[in-house]
Each structure stands twice: as structure tokens, then as C-alpha cells.
Amino acid sequence: MKDLYQQGTKKLLEKPVPTYHQAYNDSTAWLMSCLSELAYKRFNEFILGNRVQQFVDNKLSKLVVDNSMGQLETFVSMVEGLAYDHEQELKELNQSLAYLNAELIDTFDKQGTQAILVETEQYYALAFRGTEATSVRDIKSDVNAKLTSCETQGLVHSGFKHAYEQVASDITLALSSLKDENKPLLVTGHSLGGAIATIAAKRLMFKNGIAACYTFGAPRVGDHEWASHMKTPIYRIVNAADSVPMFPPNSGVLSLVSTLLSWIPSIGPKLKDWLSANLVGYTHVGDMRYLSHCEPEKYDSVQRLYHVSLPYRLKALWVKTIAPNRLIKDHSVNVYRKKLKCIAEKSWLGD
């Protein structure tokens, strides 16, 4: 996040952040995208699970016995590539937070779910880490899309619920120890982190109130009943052709797919029944802000839109599918942050 330290950032940080049950705010959206990106800092110690450790040990032993030095060197390099210095990552996290006039209060790491709790002069913020390509637990959380009952009414994504519950008690304990009674809590996250943040915004209890939840490239989390009982303002930001917010598919898409499947002999009806039993009912919660398409690193022309049609989204998705690397970039939290900074500067610094 070296580009964070640019002209204009300091002026944005001087703008006051609205508090309890706040309306959407451009500078707040940018700040939350910064924290969502910083949540990816690997402050948690690098530890191989027992099964992975056993696999690595067995693989190394076999390569040594077989005297396969070339393969051994490649395998060792691969394992080393997964490792990191968590103390250095934590140091960089604190440095970046200091530049944002924020301070790290606590970190959370349990069974594949990570989050950071920070404090500024105006608010507390809880940012959840998104999907990591090297984390098997993250991938399991994403694909375990069966709807299950939620304590707060309605049905919710099984994997996201499980991920939230890994750290829920630790977060509740940390929040209860916060002493400033005038600062509200903001919740945020990108991708999987956004999904977990949405659940946290509904289930967490905080004595000072939860001001809002900002998510970036977050998937659908629950059904209509679950969404209808959400009290915290949810602002979900979607960038251009980012496809993650289109999953799990909503009822309209599933209805079309189910109809098509019914025409396939033998396996079609079975797949249709599986979809009906596991995925029917998903909907988004909250208010969307859509970031228009821009050429890479040319974000001055970005527009923040309140609504875009499905054909418009599908067209953007189709164009990006031709160039898959651009499709991946549209989901990058780094791109979200840069675009939101341009929007915030035009919105606030132009006043």
C-alpha cells in the first residue's frame, strides 16, 4: 500500500466521519477499503496444519531417498514461498495504520478466520480478512453454500456463518473491554471478509452501536428473511465486472438454470433438486454503490453509480471474460481502494 502515502490522503483523513447509523459517506468508504486491504496483512504466525506438515515431511523424505535433487529444490522453494515473517507483517500493519491516524487494538485468528480491531479519534473499526488462495479453510468457507438457520432469523450461508463463529466470542470479549463510550463501531471486509462482516453487523452487540458496515466485492450471504431483519446500514460496493457479488446466484438465475436442467435427461432433474434444496433463496442485503469501469491505473474518470442493470453487468462481465486477468483485477481490493480514493477526493476536496 505504498501509494497510500500520496498527496490528498492527509486532507481526506481530516474530514469527520459520521457516527451512529450513518448514511453512506465517500471518505468513510475509502477508509474502510484501506482497512479491508490491511486486514490481509499476515499478522498471524505461519503454522502448517498436522496433515499438511505430515504431507510435507513425507514428500521431503521420498525425494531425498529417491535422490531427486531437482524436484527437491523445486518443492522446498514452493514451501518457502508459502512462508512469511509475521512479525514484519505486523510491523508494516502498524505503520500503515499510523499513517491513517489509527491504532491497532487487537487481532483475531482462529481456524482460518482473521480480523483486526482498530481505533481512531472518531470510531472503532473491525475489518475481516478475505479469501486467501493458499488457505484451504477459506476455500471451504466459500464453497459451503448451503443455507442454514441463523440465530437472528432467516437462513444464512453455512460456510460464512461457520467462519464468523470461529472468532465471534473473541471479538465480543474485545469489544466489551473498549472504554470510550462515545465511539461507534464500523465493520468492513473484502470478498469473504465482506460476507463475514455482513454477518457480524447483524449478530454483534456493541454498547456504543454499530454505525455501518461497508463491504467490497462481497457475495450474497442470506435469504430474504435474513436480510429483512438487518438493522445496521449495509453499504456494499461493487467494482465494474467483479463477478464475486453475483454468487451464490439469486432465485431468478436459479429458476432459469433449473428450467434448463430439467431438459437434460437423467442427471438434469437430480441437479435441479440439489439446487432447490441448497441454493434457492439468496439475496443481497443493503444498498449498492457501483464503481464504473476504468482503464488500469487510470481511475480519475471513475463514477459511483447507485444502480446498474443486469444486462450492463453481464456485458462488462463478458468483456472481461475475454481478458481473464482484467476480471481478476476488478475483484482486487487494491483497485477498490484506488477508485474510492478518487471518488472521495472529488466529493470532499472539491467542497
From TrEMBL:
<feature type="domain" description="Fungal lipase-type">
    <location>
        <begin position="126"/>
        <end position="250"/>
    </location>
</feature>
<dbReference type="Pfam" id="PF01764">
    <property type="entry name" value="Lipase_3"/>
</dbReference>
<dbReference type="InterPro" id="IPR029058">
    <property type="entry name" value="AB_hydrolase_fold"/>
</dbReference>
<dbReference type="InterPro" id="IPR051218">
    <property type="entry name" value="Sec_MonoDiacylglyc_Lipase"/>
</dbReference>
<protein>
    <submittedName>
        <fullName>Lipase (Class 3)</fullName>
    </submittedName>
</protein>
<dbReference type="InterPro" id="IPR002921">
    <property type="entry name" value="Fungal_lipase-type"/>
</dbReference>
<dbReference type="GO" id="GO:0006629">
    <property type="term" value="P:lipid metabolic process"/>
</dbReference>
